[in-house]
Amino acid sequence: MSAELQNHLADEVAIQITNMNKWYGDFHVLRDINLTVQRGERIVIAGPSGSGKSTMIRCINRLEEHQKGQIVVDGTELSSDLKNIDKIRREVGMCFQHFNLFPHLTILENCTLAPMWVRKTPKKEAEELAMHFLEKVKIPDQANKYPGMLSGGQQQRVAIARSLCMQPRIMLFDEPTSALDPEMIKEVLDTMVTLADEGMTMLCVTHEMGFARQVADRVIFMDQGQIVEQNEPEEFFNNPKSDRTKLFLSQILGH
Amino acid sequence: MTTMIDPPKAAGFHISQLLYDTRYRSMTIQVIVFLLVMGLGAYLLNNTIINLAAADKDIDFGFLGNRAGYDINQLLIPYSSDSTHWRATIVGLLNTLLVAFLGCILATIIGVVAGVLRLSKNWLTAKIMSFYVESFRNIPVLLWILAFFAVLSEMDRKPRSFRGEDAVNNMWLWDSVAVTNRGTYIPAPIWGDGSALVVITFLLSLLGIWAYGKWSHRRFEATGQILPNFWYKLGIFIVPSLAVFFLLGRPIALSIPEIKGFNFSGGLHIRNSLLALWLALSFYTGSFIAEIVRSGILAISKGQTEAAAALGLRPSRTMNLVILPQALRIIIPPLISQYLNLTKNSSLALAVGYMDLRSTLGGTTLNTTGRELECMLLMMMVYLAVSLTISTFMNVYNNSVKLKER
Amino acid sequence: MKNSKSVAFVREGMIDQQPAPASQIGAVRWLKDNLFSSVLNSILTIISLLVIFWVLSGIVPWMFGGVWNASSLSECRDILNERYGNTHYACWAVLTERWQQLLFGFYPAEEIWRAVVAFVLMLVAIAPVLFESVPRKLLWVTIAFPFLMVWLVWGGPIWGPLLVALGFVLFYVSYVVLERKSSTLLALIGSLVIGLVWWMFCVGPLSEALGSALPIGDLERVESRVLGGFMICVIIGLSGIALSLPIGLILALGRQSNLWVVKAICVGFIEFIRGVPLITLLFTASLLLNYFLPPGTAFDLTLRVIIMVTLFSSAYMAEVIRGGLAALPKGQYEAADALGLDYWQSQRLIIMPQALKISIPGIVNTFIGLFKDTTLVMFIGIFDMLGLSNAIRANSAWNGINWELYIFIGLVFWICCFSMSQYSQWLERKLRTGHH
């Protein structure tokens, strides 16, 4: 395998997961996960709770450690090497279900923290960058407030802006709307749609099937720690193949 | 595809992996920390050895077998100045445990009463209890010990003032308890023949109460009937022991203190040092326990009471079945750590001359033998053992009541 | 009646608020609710009133009939006998005579202003730590205070404390410079080495040289052994708490760590310290510490006590901070990780600022405990207030006086500890409800 070809592949393939397995003690949470994500691809991962979907995307930036198999992100293998882990975390942004903004820092400080300390960007530059992304998520006027003063939807948008400030090439979303009140879900999804339209590589764990239909290139259905079905959204929703998928879809689309 | 991006896994071991590989990094750090700590330990030890050599001393616990040569004024086991230092240590330890044990009991009683009264609907009572709690816990316990000792030893109740027909001071509780400025005299039991049987019966009846509780609970589960448990239990508690006591012709008698000449004789003499230490530690710790009890009860949300009421439970049952089990879970861990504090604070016995562990082993023994290092080491280890025993109980309890949550 | 079947209803005029029935308000109502709501309650009220009356009738005349001016207990009793015919009254004169000693120990009288200045500075230095509304600029006073305090209390030329402070600046600057060049850990080690070299080898000679060349701010030296009273309690308590903060922090992190060697060492240390009474550690300080140090090192008892008290409170501090760490949601760690911050960065920037803030009430409570425990130093021959009260009693003029001294000491402690505990409760309430 020549280095050239590897680089070429790395340009095309954003994430390559091969035969990944993970256990919590005796419990086999992820079983033989194989997944290739192309650059610019938008993937929605669905599945019942406890199916391992969050665990899977948390493995991609090593918030969880996988025990078997291989994860390659942007041509860098996720191993026990700290330098690789740092490199991958710099390239991969993540949004959490509970936002996880830093409550003791202002919105602006939340956004400039990582660029300043990890990328060593000068403060002024980092602030300009932060304002740019805060404008993009449409809350530049809240920059000097603290997270506790914002609504849930606003907080999640700040969290997205915070990740974007590291200028990641891949974004992971771990149920970004499930802790939100219904009327706030739309503003967050709109932000995510804008992001998708700009060509960001995205992996979203979400129950928002409307969002999946609208932006996803591919929908992945997981159950009991394995990938059960994946397809383009139209096919996936209109013509599910597996019984488990059918059951799941009937449960969440039932009303 | 997978084979194409195979990582260079077999590339061998680089020295930089020690720092940058998560698998080895933790090892590296641990080895460094271990070496640093060991180094510090070795340095201190080396200094000690040099210093001991310079002072012409060694480390030897053999002195514990030598004759102690001093008296101890409160004995739970036989001891005389001819006994060994080891024996003196044990006597001291028992005295420490005695005051700690008595203190824990009294502190719990005071604390629970004060804590509950502080929540009382009666404004005046609640304020008095607040005053008690705030004044005791914001003033050093050492000051309280000294103050209690001063109260006891400066009272105008000299033993000789109890003398004669028209004595200035009187004994209390039907002439059985004499509180004097030289200590308090209380009746002491005299164990006659057959008293062992009475004690055994008493212990058996305790077992009986427990068995009865189990049985009545099972009966309740089976039939739904609720028995007046309290009265039955009280009966089991009293009747058999009393019956045996009288059947055997009252084997246990009481020795009542009596004024003879200028002092009391008979009964049990409780020294002011023990009394002051006991009361001060109890009232001081009691103020902390009161707060623990109060916040424990307050922490059980109103919702729980309302839910129980909505289910139709009566207030007394709500307390027993819903509030107390939950409140105890909150109360007991800090309560035990207060017991721990009380035990450690008992070392302040020094201030009033109570002969506890610190005063025998860490005091007279240390001074007469000149073995500072050994005595201090032994004393710390004993205190540590006592503390660890208590906190082990606490952990066992904590684990057994921990809420089962997902 | 036609409308009665319809569910439609429109209110035409709003009802104004009406006053409550007379039985629901007023003082009588309050008395009934709070003091006499039931038989049991009424009995409690009567018992309480009796207790209050009994206590006050004993204490009030004694207190307010006391004598404030006399030079000895016997003189005091003479005055009381003259005035009342008996001596059942307080003799506050001992306080008038000796209050300075109780507060400052044997500190030279003409230098007491220094102790007072240090005390006021301390209040200024603590204010920005405790209250967020105080201007942040005062934090500079906080940083400078330890060095100023040493200079003010112990005297000598200002150069010594100044150079030690300079060492911290050096440490910080070298850390910042090194961190740009290498990793955080290496920078920390490197700057620590630089700092230690400065403190151990440069400070001593330099301060001597500067002291003789430029004798600026040369206060008269005061020996440690004349420190005493309330002052020594504050010094020991405050330095114990301040110095134990960093150690406690490291211990808490170590105890949380998943490196088992580190964890075992930290747990062992914490449990050992928490398992033995403070008094045994104080005796260690006075009897044994010299054994553990290189032969010939002799430093004064106050310093040895401060070392031991620091070790003692660091174990308690570690537990408090551990509580603060445990109270932080796991998401904060994850977010810091996901942004690519390394362990020390996330601890310093994300975890510690929040955990320490949650811990302040606990830290204040630890301080209250420690402050009360400083009275124990009387057992190893340091004259704190209780030690001084013994010394005063040993003087033939005041032999036999107890209560006046105990009440004064108790009151001083009570005022300090009660206000601190009120503060920590206030902060706890604020933390529970407040956002920023």
Automatic annotation (TrEMBL), chain A:
Residues 15-249 form the ABC transporter domain. It holds the Pfam family ABC_tran. Belongs to the ABC transporter superfamily. It comes from Pacificibacter maritimus. PROSITE patterns: ABC_TRANSPORTER_1, ABC_TRANSPORTER_2. GO terms for molecular function: ABC-type amino acid transporter activity; ATP binding; ATP hydrolysis activity. SMART domains: AAA. The keyword Transport applies. Keywords: ATP-binding, Nucleotide-binding, Transport. This is L-glutamine ABC transporter ATP-binding protein /L-glutamate ABC transporter ATP-binding protein /L-aspartate ABC transporter ATP-binding protein /L-asparagine ABC transporter ATP-binding protein. It comes from the Bacteria.
From TrEMBL, chain B:
The keyword Transmembrane applies. SUPFAM superfamilies: MetI-like (SSF161098). Keywords: Amino-acid transport, Cell membrane, Membrane, Transmembrane, Transmembrane helix, Transport. It comes from the Bacteria. One of its GO terms (cellular component) is ATP-binding cassette (ABC) transporter complex. InterPro entries: AA_ABC_transptr_permease_3TM, ArtM/GltK/GlnP/TcyL/YhdX-like, MetI-like, MetI-like_sf. Residues 93-394 form the ABC transmembrane type-1 domain. It is found in: Cell inner membrane; Cell membrane. GO terms for biological process: amino acid transport. The chain crosses the membrane at residues 27-45, 97-119, 131-152, 194-213, 234-256, 276-300, 376-397. It is a multi-pass membrane protein. Its main location: membrane. GO terms for molecular function: transmembrane transporter activity. Belongs to the binding-protein-dependent transport system permease family. HisMQ subfamily. This is L-glutamine ABC transporter membrane protein /L-glutamate ABC transporter membrane protein /L-aspartate ABC transporter membrane protein /L-asparagine ABC transporter membrane protein.
From TrEMBL, chain C:
It is found in: Cell inner membrane; Cell membrane. InterPro entries: AA_ABC_transptr_permease_3TM (IPR010065), ArtM/GltK/GlnP/TcyL/YhdX-like (IPR043429), MetI-like (IPR000515), MetI-like_sf (IPR035906). It is a multi-pass membrane protein. GO terms for biological process: amino acid transport. GO terms for cellular component: ATP-binding cassette (ABC) transporter complex. The chain crosses the membrane at residues 39-64, 112-131, 138-154, 160-178, 185-206, 226-253, 265-289, 301-321, 358-383, 403-423. Keywords: Cell membrane, Membrane, Transmembrane, Transmembrane helix, Transport. CDD domains: TM_PBP2 (cd06261). One of its GO terms (molecular function) is transmembrane transporter activity. Its main location: membrane. Residues 230-424 form the ABC transmembrane type-1 domain. NCBIfam families: HEQRo_perm_3TM. Belongs to the binding-protein-dependent transport system permease family. HisMQ subfamily. This is L-glutamine ABC transporter membrane protein /L-glutamate ABC transporter membrane protein /L-aspartate ABC transporter membrane protein /L-asparagine ABC transporter membrane protein. It comes from Pacificibacter maritimus.
